[in-house]
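Dear support,

I submitted the protein below through the web form. The confirmation email said the job was done, but the results page showed an empty box. After a refresh the structure appeared. I'm attaching both so you can tell me whether what I see now is the final result or a partial one.
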Amino acid sequence: MLSKPMKFALIATIALPAAIAAPVQAQSQAQPQGEAQASAMAQPTEGTVVYDAAGNQVGTIKTVAAPNFVIDTGKNTATLAVSSLGQGPKGPVIGFTRDELDAAVEKAAAETAAALAAAIVVDAPVHASDGVTVIGKISEVAEADFVLDTGTAKVKLPRTAVANGPNGLFIGMTAQQFADATKSAATGQM
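What the results page shows now:
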């Protein structure tokens, strides 16, 4: 029986050029099983099966990059804090069932997509990958793409080329990389 609550953050990864993530808060419960098990859980390994509190399989650890790990449920992947893992009779345990984790990932993805769609509007500045340098402003918006006016050129980009950051929209390129790419496109070399 699991009894000690541990908070952790669930980060649903979305396939965007800049690999952005959206946090969702949840709780996990774990029972201390001794020093050896606690240290073993601090360093989960790829391929390890993760279970829910009832002993049902939630997913498999895909990668580990402390302090987080990526779990694959077979339907979705999610980045979780290593500290969210507890120890159960079958192995590592998290405070989600497979269905609950899939639902949390899908909800976070939908919220992230909605926030991004709402941010792609005329006159919105778009930053370079540093999140600070403004490379242009959106001048036109269509269903699948938008036009970025850099002041020297107008560039049509797919909506998937940008992500939301702390300072607004950004692309996964430095200002110099973007300038080089748009120069190449203008001369037909891209």
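Response: this is the final, complete result; the empty box was a page-load delay. The chain has three helices and 14 strands.
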